[in-house]
């Protein structure tokens, strides 16, 4: 039974003309309370903090005995959960650093190639694999991680964050559990300084908390910490007394809401956003200009006698950014979602208008690698390991305490034969000790050798370690990565087929996540990357024919609708008279023709091995050029190719003109290229 439902509509009209700022904030705060209650009601919500503490190594720690105590018990512990989380983040980001954009229309093949090259450059330059690793770390402790793709004006480039606590991503009225797109909206909650609000919005807000580390640690000790605060260790009272006081940092909670607002421009009531029947959404400025009036003429020119032209002053509105647009009657007011920003104590929104991004989706991607249909967070790998982790630490302390007893066994003292001073000075751990004893006065000192440690403890420790690796899936990932230990008759297909069902499912989920991310990334390149930026990255090959059409300087063609073209393939007279549609509308139609392709099994490096072997066989057969082969193998210093050499056929012709070919060694048996090369070491 499908439990998904259509997302509800907004409970009341949030229009700019009807609703006051106070009413909007009240509605938003109710949605935040409802979303936080929804998250807190999810199964195992309380285990998120417990898992974070285990990852930090601050859980299940016994009281530390006094340093002078001779009877101190072992405090040995290991942090296997941190090792597993690090391995998962490392292994599951071992994917291809790019994805392919394909298009059916051959006219736009260069666009697809440019999108792919820009993705590769951006992925490596911005260390996106590390950002994704942060989201996977949160997946290990909370079941879900988020990646936030946004335009960063500080670096003037696209950027992404994966370090947002999933408890700070608040879904508004979710319809199902697989994606944020089923929600009416989503709120990003984060703690920032008041100076950040002033620098970005020019508004002074009152602080509602102290962001200094000393105050936050004290709040953590008192049990009043909130989710948006960083995770600090619970210091003891004595340590807090000696902690130096830090300067006070005024902070506040910043909320950013992306909302589905399906209202249309009816022009019934007009407010500040209206001009006639047209709504101007976003930031605009009014510019004065002059144009000739064909109905009026001034006095004749004294030299030529021709009548002079009369210019009249007019005004027009100019958008200040590329996410501001006009809405005619009947059109959606927020075709790209609505965006509202406010703080916990602000009297009105800091921003209320269209979303900054052209893509008709939320810029936040939900990554749940172990989804459950009844849980928003899914299942975190560390939740099943916490009990095993505590048991492992207890067993290690037993082994440590037994070793201490072997090194310093206990003694039984006869008070009639041993004095108190002699008993306190006697140490069984001291080598070569000697005891004066009178058998007639009593038993004296009897050293108690402890029994040998039960060997079942070691077997249980090994079982716990193996069970933790199997439950988390790290064992399977490591086995897949260790290709050199496979038998010689194994092929890459058998490697992929040996993947466990759980690992295959994670790979498919990661691929679906990457496809969604790549689609929004293409929108980001189209919206924010100008022709000079593309030329700096890609060189002259970044220039396309569409950069010189009726809307120059952009990847989007001036006319993308089939109705704008006549039978001869040229724009119709009506389309030319109307002019190109807005870029954000053309971007939606243009990018729908692109397919974002990811090779199956790309989660594992084994897929890359298979692709390299295929390319090698094609190159040996003469059906693949050496330039494409070297790029696939990751060989550096291949060098740029001429701009007109793009396809494989073009590269083969260019390779033939250079006199290059695949040379085979005449000595020995010819390599088949069906197996991966392996290194063997022999000793005489």
Describe what this molecule looks like in 3D.
The protein has 684 residues and is an alpha+beta fold. Among the domains are: 274-334, no CATH class; 606-658, no CATH class. The chain has 20 helices and 18 strands. The chain has helices at residues 21-40, 47-56, 80-91, 109-125, 128-142, 194-201, 213-222, 237-242, 386-407, 420-425, 456-472, 474-481, 492-497, 501-528, 531-538, 573-578, 583-591, 606-621, 626-633, 648-658, and strands at residues 100-103, 145-152, 157-161, 169-172, 185-193, 209-210, 250-259, 274-275, 278-281, 284-300, 307-319, 325-327, 338-343, 351-354, 364-367, 410-413, 445-448, 594-597. The strands form six sheets. Strands 4, 5, 6, 7, 13 and 14 form a six-stranded antiparallel sheet that branches. The relative contact order is 0.12. The model is unreliable at 1-17, 214-225, 229-247 and 483-492 (pLDDT under 50).
Radius of gyration using CA atoms only: 34 Å
**What composes the largest sheet?**
6 strands, antiparallel
- Which parts are unreliable, with pLDDT below 50 for 5 consecutive residues or more? 1-17, 214-225, 229-247, 483-492
Overall number of strands = 18
Question: Which term fits the overall shape?
Answer: elongated
Q: Give the helix level as a range of percent.
A: 25-40%
> What would you call the structural class?
alpha+beta
Average predicted local confidence, pLDDT = 78
Number of helices: 20
Strand content range: 15-25%
Distance between the termini: 67 Å
